[in-house]
Amino acid sequence: MADHMRFTLDMLSVDRTSGEPMHRQIYGALRRFILDGQIQAQSLLPSTRSLADDLAVSRNTVIAAYEQLLAEGFIEARGGSGTWVAPIQIDRASAPVRAAPTAPRKLSRRGQTIVNGPQPPRNAGVINFHPGVPETASFPFSIWSNLLLRNARRRDESLLGYLQFAGHPGLRQTIATNLGLSRGISCTAEQVIVVTGAQAALDLVARVLTDEGDDAWIEEPGYLGAKSAFLAAGARLAPLKVDRRGWFLSDPDLPPPRLIYVTPSCQWPFGTIMRIEERLQLLDIAARNDAWIVEDDYDGEYRFRGRPVPALRGLDHADRTVYIGSFGKTLIPALRIGYLIVPRELSVAFDKAVSITGQFAPLILQATVNDFIAQGYFATHLKRMRRLYARRQANFIRLCEAHLAEWIEVTENDSGMQLLASFRKPYRDGDVVAAALREGLDVQGISINYHASEPRHGLLLGYTSMDERQILRAVLALRAAFQRLDRDIAATGAHPGAR
What is the number of domains present in the chain? Predict the structure, then answer.
């Protein structure tokens, strides 16, 4: 046994250049040796003094490692006879090598639904036309940094503890006040629930308001993230058909809804604005069916001609609409701060629910967002971005007409951070996406936004995050992708697909 122990511990060493403390290195190595069976149960370990001498470390370092192993039950101290490996029952045959399971381990039905759905392309290191990505180079980082540093230095228990699950009180009040002025929404701070982004808001709504088998009307085509959230919650998706003309709210095939999800201020992906008669009809449908409306106002702040369209929530006197907003497109996406405006009767329920789900954003960041808005920086930044994005949209359309008119048609839109590109040839957008990636470009097809009907093909092109030079580079890469695709089609004689 002594020879075996000497051989085993000869492999033990410490790395003095590592950032990990040496006692943790010793502890981790001994724990691994014991679990893998290289040090067997009932083996005598070296004394702390002996091992410290062998490793050229202080004895206290080895004592700290032994104490951790002792606390976890890996070793035991026997008075007068030293330190021994505890008699732990481990399957030695399988411990050193983790054999692959003979059959794939199954996810839950909800897990399968989440991971098997289509996903927009997100490839690192390539230029991209990702929709909904804001400009960050123009963000006032110096102002933001000063506000964040001031909050980080505060020793305020309201920012350091677990007291405010539904959101920082100041930010909740500021959001309520700001939405009254900018989006025509009348609400109290108690109705504001702050979460980690719009997708977290959708997930929370799906958990709280839908049961297994409930019918949820979802725009067709519509936002993939919303469909995923409600499918994962067990809802049955009923396609609320939409085109560039509007919403088909009188479709006789639609079942009585429990919930209706819409993007009325800038429909995803068409960019259509819901007319007032459609909004009133939708509210009437919700009232007759005792249903909830979920209004996703993902791009409501970005309207380039005229004033922003008031939110549907502002017309809802019956208080049936859950409004979802986010700072990801107006500030920085990585902040991961979004919010819901819930009906009064749901405010307590959502407050409790967000504490259980863990979807609450860091309070220091919330406090900084509150300061950024309250001190006027947000309004100034938003005005600057509206002007910038309007210029970029006009420039982007000119470049598309100059370099891509053979393949796509892109028309201007009064709102939003992306434009719909219709194909002039019968391509499948998946083929275009693949060809673009070979040219070092990410683009998103619109067919992934269809759930229940034959998809239309085209591209959803985000232009807001790129300056003129970057937009030109991206447009030329997309031109090269279409040229490549046309050559491949000509060489194979294959039909490219269908619109």
Answer: 3
